[in-house]
Design brief:
Pathway: Cofactor biosynthesis; (R)-pantothenate biosynthesis; (R)-pantoate from 3-methyl-2-oxobutanoate: step 2/2. Belongs to the ketopantoate reductase family. GO terms for molecular function: 2-dehydropantoate 2-reductase activity; NADP binding. Pfam families: ApbA, ApbA_C. This protein is of the alpha/beta class. The chain folds into two domains: 169 residues, Rossmann fold (3-Layer(aba) Sandwich), CATH 3.40.50; 134 residues, N-(1-d-carboxylethyl)-l-norvaline Dehydrogenase, domain 2 (Orthogonal Bundle), CATH 1.10.1040.10. Helices cover 37% and strands 23% of the residues. It has a seven-stranded mixed beta sheet, sandwiched between helices. Strands 4-3-10-9 form a four-stranded mixed beta sheet, covered by helices on one side. β9 and β10 form a beta hairpin. α4 packs across α10. It is globular, with a radius of gyration of 20 Å. The protein binds NADPH dihydro-nicotinamide-adenine-dinucleotide phosphate (NDP) and ketopantoate. The site of NADPH dihydro-nicotinamide-adenine-dinucleotide phosphate has 31 residues, from α1, β2, α2 and β9.
Length: 315
Amino acid sequence: MKNTPWLVIGAGAIGLFWACKLEELGYKVHLVYRSENPGKKITLESLTNENGDQQITVSKHKIKSVAASELTDTYDKVLLCTKSFDLKNAFLQVAQHITDDANIACLCNGIGAQEELQNALSENQTLWAGTTSEGVLKIEPNHIKHTGLGDTYFGEWQPSIPAKAFPIDGLTVTNIHQRMIEKLAVNAVINPITAIFSIHNGDILNDEFKPLVNATLSELASVFSHPKFSYADQSQHLTPENLKNRVNTIAQLTRLNRSSMHEDIRLQRQTENSFISGFLLNNSPIDLPIQQLLYNGVAFPEQREETQKKLLSIT
Ligand SMILES: NC(=O)C1=CN([C@@H]2O[C@H](COP(=O)(O)OP(=O)(O)OC[C@H]3O[C@@H](n4cnc5c(N)ncnc54)[C@H](OP(=O)(O)O)[C@@H]3O)[C@@H](O)[C@H]2O)C=CC1
Ligand SMILES: CC(C)(CO)C(=O)C(=O)O
């Protein structure tokens, strides 16, 4: 299948990163941009772990970038790298160029957009939902920087028997829903707190935020262990202790980074709040007063100062 190109959609940090990675793996790649044309060459400052040492290497990648309206070919492998709120429309605008039996992968934070996308696919197209812990920053339209080493996994959104094969070896897991809820848990703590208080990821570990972080984690653990939670089959292992370890590890590993939600608010862009806290609020069988405060603090800038006070008064 290496002779047919991947269609990567979204020339943001993750789209440019994966366009380069796929090209490195020997695939032909066509990249669809929306507002910023990255041009013909992408510079990737990548982080590698050679002999236990993190090293930066710079490479240039020749990628064909086009606007959706310029597409003429048909594709059987698609990787969508948009934010969750753009996912379905990004697919629909290229749908006429996608084969009826295509593999369609997506990499976005949050839960909810994948189901919308699944509903837009035809019967024999396969949706591969993905989750990534790589950190990537776009510093220019054609220049990205790898800021944190991580892992990426894909899995069939609707598992089939026998399991289907993903076009790239070594990246699949049998239960992607479990990985997604684990990532969502981390995002539901780090993203809104860093965004509401304008702090870096590592700052949530400071004493000032400990009561808030602990209360958020224990509220999440109550919903994850609730038998009526829509993801209960995938979330029982997320105990307060397990959640704390996950959040602390990621906050520590990405301590100098701004979360995507903090960055979105700082740059006055739409956030993925509805697909992170919003997903939890809509799917929880119990009230989640802290998650509701976090949701409001992100969604309503005029309430942010008041929300900060309420969040810091949690004991
Ligand atoms: N960056 C990171 O380190 C990480 C990101 N993620 C997740 O990965 C996803 C992508 O993140 P990231 O790359 O940082 O986000 P960006 O906002 O940098 O990139 C998203 C890109 O999608 C483009 N896009 C949206 N709609 C369309 C469309 N219809 N056609 C073509 N392009 C479109 C946007 O175009 P435009 O420029 O016009 O807005 C933008 O360039 C998010 O869900 C994020 O939470 C997860 C882990 C780490
Ligand atoms: C893991 C984390 C919190 C890293 O910044 C992230 O996924 C995000 O910022 O959206």
